[in-house]
Specification:
Blueprint (H helix, E strand, L loop, with lengths): L36 E3 L8 E5 L2 E5 L55 H25 L8 E3 L15 E2 L2 E2 L2 E3 L4 E3 L7 H4 L3 H20 L1 H12 L4 H25 L8 H8 L19 H14 L17
Parallel strand pairs: 1-7, 4-8
Antiparallel strand pairs: 2-3, 5-6, 7-8
Helix pairs in contact: 1-3, 3-5, 3-6, 4-5, 5-7
Amino acid sequence: MIVAVALFAIVAVAGGLVAVVALAGNDHRHVADAGYSSTYPTTTEETTEQTTGETTTTTSSTEPATRTTERETPTSRTPAGPRSVAATGENPLFAGPDYGLQNIPCSLSRWATDQTSVTRFFQSGVACLDAMWSRTLGAADLPFRPPNLAVPRSLSESSTPCGSGGTTTGVTPFYCAANSTIYLPMDRIELDQWGNHPGPYLAILAHEYGHHVQNLAGITGAFESLRYDAGADSAAGLELARRMELEAQCFSGMFLGSASVSGGSVDRNIYNEAWNSQDRGDDYARNGKRDHGSAKHSISWWQHGATNNRNQQCNTWLSPSGDVS
């Protein structure tokens, strides 16, 4: 039997630069249906996906089997290049004291609230996130591949490998680890709340992209195992989930802080809008389950990432329990 082996290569680049940003105001805006979300099924195989507007389609190629008269011995090889490391607080992502996001200018598509404009805006945001995080992951000798992106009008329960993305805080945008896809349905991105202010939407995207970074690094896999052992809804399991979500908040802040001093289209106005839109979390959970972190910590971890821009500063796994409540 002929075994096809996929090879990929990742270019490792030096760590990021410090993003020096001034503190913005504290006019935090209340969000009723709080939270960004991620779902964490273990990824068992990689797929190549093409995303357009409302749908995400998977493409694959199958070659006809080749018959041979000689017996062949199956072989296996470890894929070349960087590999994920199943670890949380001790993950290589946090090993380098100077690892952070380089200040790369972003070129964002103009924001408007129609679906075509929203999709283009998020696509341009992903491109900038790719440019920054690929360098940081490479510096830590971790793999990189871009996430898939889906911006449908809405989602049904069977639309994705991770369901419809419902959480304790409501039905929200989410990242699905099973197919490495960020889902940003039009009916979930709070258009009625933020209207024509692009900052909050960019922060939402950067949070979900943070879950993609966790998946690539191997943090997601380690988290799944730890939470399974603890019990998903146990006190320890819920605390692990809060650490996961608040770390993504911090990564989101890192991106906005770095991009806002890079001379691109993420200006101080967009940054300040994002800064003032982080009042979300378990304080507004519909069933009282605390798996995302309080509004206070949702705000503080985002701002911590924005003003420090260092991976180590976002390592929620080694923080005291009181900082991730």
